Amino acid sequence: MNLKPFLSFSERSIADLDAWQDQGGKIAGVYCIYAPNELIRAAGIVPVSLCGKKQAPIKDAEKELPASFCPLVKSSYGYAVTDTCPFFQFSDILIAETTCDGKKKMYELMGKLKPLHLMHLPHTQEPEAVLEYWLRALHRLEDFLFQCSGIKVSDQALHDQIVQQNEIRKALWDISVLAADRQSPLTASDMLAIQESKSFCVNPAGYLEQLITLKRELEEFLRQPGLAAPGGIRILLTGCPVGKGSDKVIQIAQELGARIVSMENCTGLKGMTLAVDETIDPYEAIARRYLKIPCSCMTPNPLRPESIREMADLFQADAVLDLTWTGCHTYNAESFTLQQFVEDQLELPFLHIETDYSESDQGQLKTRIEALVELSG
Ligand code: SF4
Ligand code: SF4
Fold it and tell me: Which of 294, 267, 257 is nearest to 372 (CA)?
């Protein structure tokens, strides 16, 4: 099984982005899975994720943002304000959404650095109440994209992007399910790299081929007789986004012999089963699909426990680990209700961890995750 193309995907995409820009191609920096990939690509623009996952730029962000903001916001802004992220440098435009308060206030500052379009996201998922409003937000984004690329989105181009992005989501989902097989050799760190790759893809057709090849190789591997099945409790990880650099909780769990078999967060599988309907008006289909994303910025957010129920069942989880970045009030607030749901309805052990990007609480985290492993074993 060749994981090499995925292990340093973002680093290698730099050359592709460079070539794309040299040919006159445009690049949009995005910070959230509410950014509608299909529409951005149909306007001839490549979206790349700019979410900060490292501690280093945080001190620079804190010169302008409150230290109490979550590390993801501070890291993202730190990279932007110091101009030290190659993906930020590549970005011709930024696409933002009104999700949490930290991001909204960060975007007000970021708009001074690059042309930024703010999508006004409704905070209820009731389509009857907000569909028209959200559709208008999509059309306003389309105007902004046109000003950047000069490419008018056609229904056909949008439909083609919808089909392709559905195929990519499906392939990533299938790989994630195979990777969670008891005999799979893939670790959570491998899956983090594979799932993260979707945010740095310049050529979606080539990327889809790579995913399909990996899926086929994994299926072939798992068909071999007599494979060992490494033990360890199976953990479903939920909560705030995690990436390479902000993965200390995953590393600690792995060192303790646990397997994170499913990551129900935005860097992982959140929304991965939500396909865009290919049979109805493409704008309405996109609007409906993105409204269903179970983010804690929505109130209420009933689809998150349902998504966790389905994943805990499918991935045969022995426990749920809820990770909140310090300063993320919405995920923090949901943890209480989620714990009740997981313990009472799913009858699984639950651990809530609140931490940041620093290394200072490694010992304490180890003790708490060790207790979860023992309780679930
Ligand atoms: S957690 Fe919510 S705000 Fe953050 S990336 Fe996901 S959808 Fe966007
Ligand atoms: S982790 Fe929470 S506070 Fe931080 S950007 Fe995401 S939703 Fe906002």
Answer: 257
Ligand 1 atom nearest the C-alpha of 270 is: 6
CATH number at residue 50: 3.40.50.11890
- Return the exposure string of 115-140: e unless at least 16 CB atoms fall within 10 Å of the residue's CB, then b: ebbbbebbeebeeeebeeebbebbee
- Which residue, by CA, sits nearest to atom 6 of ligand 2? 240
pTM: 0.96
The answer to whether the CB of 148 is under 6 A from ligand 2 is no
Taking residue 60's Cβ as centre, other Cβ atoms within 10 Å add up to 18
Minimum-distance ligand 1 atom for the alpha carbon of 99: 3
Range of the domain at 56: 8-153
Q: Is 371 part of a structural domain of the chain?
A: no
Residue of the nearest CA to atom 2 in ligand 2? 328
- Using CA positions, which residue lies closest to atom 3 of ligand 2? 328
Helices 248-255 & 188-197 angle (0-180, nearest 10): 150
Range with the lowest mean pLDDT among 50-54, 149-153, 174-178, 269-273?
269-273
